[in-house]
Specification:
The protein is of the alpha/beta class. It folds into 2 domains: about 10-235 and about 395-420, Aldehyde Dehydrogenase, Chain A, domain 1, CATH 3.40.605; about 240-380, Aldehyde Dehydrogenase, Chain A, domain 2 (3-Layer(aba) Sandwich). Helix content is about 40%, strand content about 20%. The strands form 4 sheets. The chain has a 7-stranded parallel β-sheet. It has a 4-stranded parallel β-sheet with strand order 5-4-3-6, sandwiched between helices. A 3-stranded antiparallel β-sheet has the order 1-2-16, with no helix packed on it. Strand 9 (about 295-300), helix 13 (about 300-305) and strand 10 (about 310) form a beta-alpha-beta unit. Helix 2 crosses helix 9 (about 195-205). It starts with a helix and ends in a 7-residue tail after the last strand.
Length: about 425
């Protein structure tokens, strides 16, 4: 839906959100009727448009990066914000990957026939209009949009101020490609104001927006959960643990621990707490490479005995998502102690055990109540793409509707289709 600056200036945030959402609802009806091959073809055109727009996207991102540095964004936030040719290519590749995934819409979940002859089927259908509120990462503009389009949903995007120019450039390229492929422009809309009141208007737009997905820091997600009158698919902090069990293979443990923390410190799957079994024989070899790679390590009294460079941990370190080259380390007395620590401090995102003991691994996998639980793997794999789901809209840490990486199936609901031959209920 075309708007001009004068229209935006005189509209209240509530009126703006209502207008965008009503347009999205109409577009979603058209999108939901598009055949799966047509949606896939439109997404491939959107990927091509992103590649053609690389220079414009990088120029827009340079403005955001300069503003972010001037405004004192942390290195972790700047890393999330930064685009380069490889990252732009990665965004386009992710769009193409989603185009190649199976379309969940219309899939039959189950089928049953009742004794009276009624045939009941559950089939997947789009949720409708999805509002995505996010910070820092401009790739979310593309990831959220294409997942919504592939699953037959309209997207109403509200990105953070720090990425405003990047988001607009990515959105413009995406929509150009989608429209070329027959998708209504209003199926993917970027809220054209950074007024925080627009976020509040989205949160209370029950009946206009069907689900809100927040992507950002703890304060954003907490605000969304507290204020929303629309169902929320939430992702809280990623306080991810790796427990190195006494029976861990030392070479494997050292490689996993270093990767889990230092591959990229600013992502939600980055390890924030390392737990080391008190009887593990090579604790120093776990810690030294982290410190030598530039990681500040904070530990309890027993951890500090491992390496004199470990600084004391405060009580709140065990509940902190650093998103930076900082790590808390604790020494624990076996599996039960590790499980108790994780139960107290985990954000239910991703927790991992490194061990060659199959019984210990089975207990950990069964007893840790997180969206993702791993054995002998880096927590950095907590990603929809690595799970073979294509791009993800987020990693849900709650218990309802979807959990873990939320991709296409997580953006659908279902309806019952009932077929009879004249039955009436006695």
């Amino acid at each position: 839906m075309a708007t001009n600056a004068q229209d935006i200036a005189v509209e209240t945030p509530a009126a703006l959100v209502e207008r965008l959402a009503r347009a999205a609802r109409i577009a979603q009806g058209t999108l939901a009727r598009m055949p799966s091959p047509a949606k896939a073809a439109a997404l491939r055109l959107a990927a091509a448009a992103l590649r053609r727009a690389e220079a414009a996207i990088l120029a827009a991102n340079a403005i955001d990066m300069a503003n972010g540095e001037a405004n004192g964004l942390t290195p972790a936030l700047l890393d999330r914000l930064r685009l380069d040719p490889a990252r732009v290519a990665g965004i386009a590749d992710a769009v193409e990957q989603v185009a190649g995934l199976d379309d969940p819409v219309g899939q039959e979940i189950d089928r049953r026939e009742r004794p009276n002859g009624l045939v009941l089927r559950r089939v997947r259908v789009p949720i409708g209009v999805i509002g995505i509120i996010y910070e820092s990462r401009p790739n979310v503009t593309a990831d959220a949009a294409v997942l919504c389009v592939r699953s037959g949903n309209a997207a109403l995007l509200r990105g953070g101020t720090e990425a405003v120019h990047s988001n607009r450039a990515i959105h413009a390229a995406l929509v150009a490609g989608l429209v070329e492929g027959g998708v209504p422009a209003d199926a993917v809309q970027l809220v054209p104001t950074q007024d925080r009141a627009a976020v509040g208007a989205m949160l209370v737009a029950a009946g206009l927006i069907d689900m809100i997905v927040p992507r950002g820091g703890k304060s954003l997600v907490a605000r969304v959960q507290a204020d929303a009158r629309v169902p929320v698919l939430a992702h809280l902090d990623g306080i991810c643990h790796t427990f190195v069990h006494a029976a861990a293979d030392p070479a494997m443990a050292e490689a996993i621990v270093l990767n889990a923390k230092m591959r990229r410190t600013g992502i939600c799957g980055s390890m924030e707490t390392l737990l080391i079994d008190a009887t593990y024989p090579a604790a120093a070899a776990l810690v030294a490479p982290l410190i030598e790679a530039g990681c500040e390590v904070r530990g309890d009294a027993r951890a500090r005995a491992i390496d004199p460079r470990i600084v004391p941990a405060a009580d709140n370190d065990w509940d902190t998502e650093y998103l930076d080259a900082v790590l808390s380390v604790a020494v624990v007395d076996g599996l039960d102690s590790a499980l108790a620590h994780i139960d107290r401090h985990s954000s239910r995102h991703t927790d991992a055990i490194v061990t060659a003991d199959a019984e210990a691994a089975a207990r950990f996998l069964n007893e840790v109540d997180s969206a993702i639980v791993m054995h002998n793997a880096s927590s950095q794999f907590a990603d929809g793409g690595e799970f073979g789901l294509g791009a993800e809209i987020g990693i849900a840490t709650g218990r309802l509707h979807a959990r873990g990486p939320v991709a296409l199936e997580g953006l659908t609901t279902y309806k019952w289709l009932v077929e009879g031959n004249g039955q009436v209920r006695p």
